[in-house]
Amino acid sequence: MAITGKLTALMVSREKRPGCYGDGGAVFTDDDALAARVKSLRVHGENAGDKYDALHIGITGRLDSIQAAVLIEKLKIFADEIVARQAVAARYAEGLAGVATTPRTGNESTSVWAQYTIRLEPGRRDALGAALKAQGIPTAIYYAKPLHRQAAYRDCPVADGGVPVSDRLAGEVISLPMHAYLEPAVQDRVIEAVRRALAG
Fold it and tell me: Which domains does the chain have, with CATH numbers?
Protein backbone atom coordinates (compact mmCIF):
# COMPACT_ATOMS: atom_id res chain seq x y z
CA MET A 1 0.00 0.00 0.00
CA ALA A 2 1.45 3.37 -0.99
CA ILE A 3 1.56 6.20 1.49
CA THR A 4 -0.79 8.95 0.37
CA GLY A 5 -2.30 12.01 1.98
CA LYS A 6 -0.98 15.34 3.14
CA LEU A 7 2.46 14.81 4.66
CA THR A 8 5.24 17.15 5.70
CA ALA A 9 8.46 15.73 7.07
CA LEU A 10 11.18 17.45 9.05
CA MET A 11 14.26 15.27 9.19
CA VAL A 12 17.12 16.37 11.40
CA SER A 13 20.52 14.92 12.12
CA ARG A 14 23.99 16.14 12.87
CA GLU A 15 24.23 17.59 9.35
CA LYS A 16 20.76 19.07 8.90
CA ARG A 17 19.13 22.15 10.35
CA PRO A 18 18.35 22.25 13.19
CA GLY A 19 20.99 19.69 14.12
CA CYS A 20 20.97 17.48 17.19
CA TYR A 21 23.73 15.26 18.61
CA GLY A 22 22.50 12.14 16.84
CA ASP A 23 19.59 11.43 14.54
CA GLY A 24 16.06 12.73 14.88
CA GLY A 25 13.06 13.79 12.89
CA ALA A 26 9.42 14.77 12.82
CA VAL A 27 6.51 14.07 10.49
CA PHE A 28 3.40 16.25 10.39
CA THR A 29 0.15 15.18 8.76
CA ASP A 30 -3.58 15.88 9.00
CA ASP A 31 -4.44 12.28 8.03
CA ASP A 32 -5.05 9.93 11.02
CA ALA A 33 -4.52 6.76 8.98
CA LEU A 34 -1.27 8.10 7.56
CA ALA A 35 -0.11 9.14 11.05
CA ALA A 36 -0.75 5.60 12.31
CA ARG A 37 1.17 4.11 9.38
CA VAL A 38 4.17 6.41 9.93
CA LYS A 39 4.18 5.64 13.67
CA SER A 40 4.26 1.96 12.81
CA LEU A 41 7.07 2.37 10.29
CA ARG A 42 9.29 4.22 12.79
CA VAL A 43 9.25 1.22 15.15
CA HIS A 44 10.09 -1.64 12.77
CA GLY A 45 6.53 -1.62 11.35
CA GLU A 46 4.99 -2.80 14.62
CA ASN A 47 1.29 -3.44 15.09
CA ALA A 48 -0.23 -0.88 17.50
CA GLY A 49 -2.23 -3.70 19.11
CA ASP A 50 0.66 -6.15 19.35
CA LYS A 51 4.15 -4.71 19.39
CA TYR A 52 5.66 -8.13 18.66
CA ASP A 53 3.77 -8.38 15.36
CA ALA A 54 5.24 -6.33 12.48
CA LEU A 55 2.63 -5.16 10.00
CA HIS A 56 5.13 -3.49 7.65
CA ILE A 57 8.85 -3.45 6.93
CA GLY A 58 9.95 -0.46 8.98
CA ILE A 59 12.97 1.21 10.51
CA THR A 60 14.25 2.24 13.91
CA GLY A 61 13.25 5.89 13.69
CA ARG A 62 12.43 6.79 17.26
CA LEU A 63 13.57 10.13 18.63
CA ASP A 64 15.15 9.57 22.04
CA SER A 65 14.76 11.96 24.97
CA ILE A 66 18.31 13.32 24.80
CA GLN A 67 17.90 14.34 21.14
CA ALA A 68 14.47 15.84 21.89
CA ALA A 69 15.94 17.91 24.74
CA VAL A 70 18.71 19.23 22.47
CA LEU A 71 16.26 20.05 19.69
CA ILE A 72 13.81 21.85 21.99
CA GLU A 73 16.59 24.27 22.95
CA LYS A 74 17.93 24.60 19.40
CA LEU A 75 14.47 25.34 17.99
CA LYS A 76 14.40 28.47 20.18
CA ILE A 77 17.27 29.97 18.17
CA PHE A 78 16.48 28.30 14.83
CA ALA A 79 15.15 31.45 13.14
CA ASP A 80 18.24 33.43 14.17
CA GLU A 81 20.53 30.68 12.91
CA ILE A 82 18.81 30.68 9.52
CA VAL A 83 19.35 34.44 9.21
CA ALA A 84 23.02 34.01 10.17
CA ARG A 85 23.49 31.18 7.66
CA GLN A 86 21.89 33.26 4.92
CA ALA A 87 24.38 36.05 5.67
CA VAL A 88 27.27 33.58 5.44
CA ALA A 89 25.92 32.26 2.10
CA ALA A 90 25.53 35.81 0.74
CA ARG A 91 29.11 36.62 1.78
CA TYR A 92 30.40 33.48 0.03
CA ALA A 93 28.43 34.32 -3.12
CA GLU A 94 29.90 37.81 -3.24
CA GLY A 95 33.43 36.71 -2.40
CA LEU A 96 33.53 33.82 -4.85
CA ALA A 97 31.86 35.58 -7.78
CA GLY A 98 33.79 35.00 -10.95
CA VAL A 99 35.88 32.06 -9.71
CA ALA A 100 33.22 29.42 -8.98
CA THR A 101 29.56 28.78 -9.65
CA THR A 102 27.83 29.51 -6.37
CA PRO A 103 24.41 28.20 -5.33
CA ARG A 104 21.39 30.45 -5.45
CA THR A 105 17.77 30.21 -4.42
CA GLY A 106 14.72 31.20 -6.41
CA ASN A 107 12.99 34.52 -5.83
CA GLU A 108 10.38 32.98 -3.54
CA SER A 109 12.68 30.41 -1.93
CA THR A 110 14.94 30.37 1.09
CA SER A 111 17.56 27.90 2.26
CA VAL A 112 18.85 26.89 5.67
CA TRP A 113 22.22 26.20 4.00
CA ALA A 114 22.98 22.81 5.54
CA GLN A 115 25.98 22.90 3.20
CA TYR A 116 27.50 25.52 0.94
CA THR A 117 28.38 23.65 -2.23
CA ILE A 118 30.15 25.35 -5.11
CA ARG A 119 30.65 24.10 -8.65
CA LEU A 120 34.01 24.27 -10.40
CA GLU A 121 35.23 23.80 -13.94
CA PRO A 122 35.90 20.12 -14.73
CA GLY A 123 39.14 18.82 -13.27
CA ARG A 124 39.62 21.60 -10.70
CA ARG A 125 37.97 20.09 -7.62
CA ASP A 126 40.70 17.76 -6.37
CA ALA A 127 43.39 20.45 -6.61
CA LEU A 128 41.19 22.91 -4.71
CA GLY A 129 40.39 20.37 -2.00
CA ALA A 130 44.10 19.58 -1.57
CA ALA A 131 45.08 23.26 -1.47
CA LEU A 132 42.49 24.04 1.19
CA LYS A 133 43.38 20.96 3.24
CA ALA A 134 47.03 22.08 3.25
CA GLN A 135 45.87 25.32 4.88
CA GLY A 136 43.72 23.57 7.48
CA ILE A 137 40.43 24.41 5.73
CA PRO A 138 38.05 21.44 5.64
CA THR A 139 35.94 20.62 2.60
CA ALA A 140 33.53 17.80 1.79
CA ILE A 141 32.19 16.11 -1.31
CA TYR A 142 28.70 15.03 -0.31
CA TYR A 143 27.51 14.04 -3.76
CA ALA A 144 30.43 12.15 -5.31
CA LYS A 145 28.16 9.42 -6.69
CA PRO A 146 24.76 10.35 -8.15
CA LEU A 147 21.76 8.27 -7.08
CA HIS A 148 21.37 6.46 -10.39
CA ARG A 149 24.89 5.02 -9.94
CA GLN A 150 24.28 3.70 -6.42
CA ALA A 151 23.55 0.02 -5.86
CA ALA A 152 20.15 0.61 -4.24
CA TYR A 153 18.88 2.29 -7.42
CA ARG A 154 20.52 0.07 -10.03
CA ASP A 155 17.17 -1.42 -11.10
CA CYS A 156 15.37 1.92 -11.37
CA PRO A 157 14.71 3.26 -14.85
CA VAL A 158 16.86 6.11 -16.17
CA ALA A 159 15.79 8.48 -18.93
CA ASP A 160 16.87 7.73 -22.48
CA GLY A 161 20.39 9.05 -22.90
CA GLY A 162 21.08 8.75 -19.17
CA VAL A 163 21.38 11.69 -16.80
CA PRO A 164 24.50 13.50 -17.99
CA VAL A 165 23.92 16.61 -15.86
CA SER A 166 23.91 14.53 -12.65
CA ASP A 167 27.04 12.69 -13.78
CA ARG A 168 28.82 15.95 -14.61
CA LEU A 169 27.85 17.75 -11.41
CA ALA A 170 28.97 14.82 -9.25
CA GLY A 171 32.51 15.46 -10.48
CA GLU A 172 32.44 19.25 -10.14
CA VAL A 173 30.98 20.09 -6.71
CA ILE A 174 32.72 20.64 -3.39
CA SER A 175 31.35 22.01 -0.11
CA LEU A 176 33.01 24.71 1.96
CA PRO A 177 32.78 25.28 5.72
CA MET A 178 29.26 26.45 6.62
CA HIS A 179 27.64 27.16 9.96
CA ALA A 180 25.76 29.99 11.64
CA TYR A 181 28.76 31.01 13.71
CA LEU A 182 31.32 31.30 10.90
CA GLU A 183 33.03 34.57 11.75
CA PRO A 184 33.65 37.03 8.89
CA ALA A 185 37.44 36.90 9.35
CA VAL A 186 37.43 33.10 9.11
CA GLN A 187 35.14 33.19 6.11
CA ASP A 188 37.38 35.78 4.42
CA ARG A 189 40.30 33.37 4.92
CA VAL A 190 38.32 30.59 3.21
CA ILE A 191 37.29 32.87 0.34
CA GLU A 192 40.83 34.13 -0.19
CA ALA A 193 42.22 30.58 -0.13
CA VAL A 194 39.67 29.45 -2.73
CA ARG A 195 40.39 32.44 -4.95
CA ARG A 196 44.18 31.89 -4.75
CA ALA A 197 43.88 28.17 -5.47
CA LEU A 198 41.63 28.70 -8.45
CA ALA A 199 43.71 31.55 -9.85
CA GLY A 200 46.77 29.30 -10.18
Answer: 7-72 (no CATH), 78-199 (3.90.1150.10)
